[in-house]
Amino acid sequence: MSKSNFWFVKDLGGILCCIFTWILILFALFTFLIVVRPLFFINSPEIKSKIFYTSLYLFLTLFAIFSHTKTMLSDPNESNQDTFLSSGRKYLVCSICSSLKPARAHHCSVCKRCIRKMDHHCPWVNNCVGEANIKYFLLFLFYIASMSIYSVFAASIGLLNLTKIETSGIPY
To answer: Active-site residue numbers?
Structure first.
């Protein structure tokens, strides 16, 4: 039998944090599309640039949601006892769950199991960040940071455009 790589932690606090994270991402998308984008394109009549910059933000949003979901639903690589027994090496036994633990494995009190190369249990993704899903977690952080930087840049340009329009009619 092949083991499924699908994993979901049934923790109410973590599930609420995940829903709140998705709401924040969708609110950022809404704010960008309704508030920031019109200000950003006040002086730009060119439709190609509007499509390009809007599509870029949409792709960042979709990639952020995908990497968040992948981090949340992927198994962080729990300690597999069959692999340990066949290697012939000495391993520690977890004092909490009584399973075999390789080096750098830690027991997560929320997931109730030992996780290899565990970084931390993140309530915002409702999962442990471990050996197998740290890539998706770092991508999630990168996409959220990129969305934030892009929004600040677009809002700054939009405010500059707005001040140029407002001050253009005032003689100095």
So the answer is: 122
